[in-house]
Amino acid sequence: MTSTATAQLRRRIARNWHRLNGPGRVAGVDLARGLAVLGMLAAHLLWLGSLSWTEPSTWGSVVTGRSSILFAALAGVSLGLSTGGPTPPHGAGLGRARLRVTIRALLIWLLGVLLISFDVPAAIILPTYAIIFVLTLPLLAQRASRLFLAAAIVVLVTSPLIVWANASPWWESYKGWLLGLYIGWNYPFPLWIAFTLAGLGLARAGIRSRRVQWAALSVGALLAVAGYSLSPGPESSEQTAGRSFLEAWWTSDPHSSGVLEAIGSGGFAIAVIGLCLLLRTGGRWPWLTFPLRSVGSMPLTAYVLQIVMWAVASMTLLGSAHEHAFRDLDPFLPITIATVMLSVAWSLLVGQGPLEAALGRLSLIGGPPASSGANTQQRQNTLEP
């Protein structure tokens, strides 16, 4: 390599390092998204049992259900950051922002349909996100207090409705199964929009403020303690057949859509975001968290990469993508290491994640972002899970 090429490489690495560590970046959001990606990998690729808070040996199961809810809350944070942060768009700027979000939502849904076709035995969450982004459009210009109130109302109203709807045998029919795939019903959007609205509220409240960060940590922790402590028994990762409506609703079980899960796991997600923001990960010793933050800077790419690696590895080694057989290969560590190494290399040598960059360019069909001091932040924080 010539001295000129070496100098160009160094400049590129320095520029990309500054992109993830400069003052325009909310590094704590990247850290939280990186944790969510690792939690998702663990939930998909490890054998995890039921969680009991009094038994430390089961604490690894904390990722079950909570990683996806953390993603949903972070999607709201990213949505807020990409549309003005604490200063929501208005007028023509609001119309352009809504159009860009709609275009991204359509592309994310199409990408989700593509991943579904890989026939990997994991519930693809992208269709849920696509629908949620569209449903948040009417509230995009609301202030933080109204968004938090809307999130609370959504939880209280939709949780019992979803528990009731899930009891219908129609979901076991072919039409119900197919519809569930393409709308991401494993993560039912009528309830999950609450987590995204809470994240959007954080962004509108001013996520760089230490007061907001401490409030997110403390309020989120209180909600988590309230939700989990009110649960009538230890969490179970298995859906229990034959439960009464009240038992199915008043529970914190992962993926149950129970009201206590929404309160507890929603609060847990908000607390994690607050803690990551308070750590000031882009300040002193940023290299300590850089590998995880590089994963969090390209969450959509990391998510899709995991599904693709799962499909290719399982079909190559097993001839089938069956969940149990693939987990028996202990794929968590190699896939996690590969994801982190590829994310670090790409973020330093290239920059923005490939899928994030592609969606960003395509969404500009809806017009450029409104001119504001938050433009650097808007470009660097995307809508993807």
Automatic annotation (TrEMBL):
UniProtKB keywords: Membrane, Transmembrane, Transmembrane helix
Transmembrane segments: 59-81, 101-118, 124-140, 147-167, 187-207, 214-231, 259-279, 300-320, 332-351
UniProt-listed InterPro entries: DUF418, HGSNAT_cat
DUF418 domain span: 257-359
Any Pfam family hit: HGSNAT_cat
Domain Heparan-alpha-glucosaminide N-acetyltransferase catalytic positions: 25-226
Protein name: Membrane protein YeiB
